[in-house]
Amino acid sequence: MSEPYEETLNGETLFRSAPGKAHELLVGRLHQWVAGCLAPNSTLEVLPPRTALDLGETGHLQPDLCVIRRAPGASKEDSTLYLVAEVLFPGDHHADTVLKKQVWADLRLPRLWMVDPRYLNVEVYASTEFGFTLLDILANRHPLTDPCLPGLSRSMNELFEGV
Hints:
Layout: E1 5-9, E2 12-16, H1 21-36, E3 44-47, E4 53-54, E5 59-61, E6 65-69, E7 80-87, H2 94-106, E8 111-116, E9 121-128, E10 131-139, E11 143-144, E12 154-155, H3 156-160
Parallel strand pairs: 7-8
Antiparallel strand pairs: 1-2, 1-5, 3-6, 4-5, 6-7, 8-9, 9-10, 11-12
C-alpha cells in the first residue's frame, strides 16, 4: 500500500489518504496496459504513478496515471499532457470528480479517464471547443480504447477483476 500524500489546488491543500490494495491493483493494471501498447519510438510516455505535476498557480496534482506527449527530440519539460486517469477513492470523490476534473477541463486535457470501483466503470472524457465532453461510460465487456494508444483494448471485466 502507498503512503498518504498531498495535492494543492488553487491555494488549498487536499489531503489524500493512502490508496488501498484494490486502488493500487487498478492503477497497476492501467499502467501496465498503457505502457504495453506504446511503441519504443512513441511520442507518448507513461509517467510513474502519482507523479507530481506542477500546474503553476493552479497548484500541483498527482494523478494515478499520466501520459505525456513529447515532440521528437524535445525534453520532458517541453512535453504536454495527453491523458490523465484518476481512480476514485471511496468516500472521497469530490476532489477528483468535481475539483480536479474542472482543472483538467480548464487545461484542455485531451483525455481523462475517471475510474470508479464502486460502479465498476470508467467515464471517458475528451476536450472539445466547448470544454469536456463525456464520450462514453464503459462497463462490463466494453473495451477501454484510445485513438493514440494502438493495441489498447481491455474490457472493464478485465480491469475490475478481483476488485
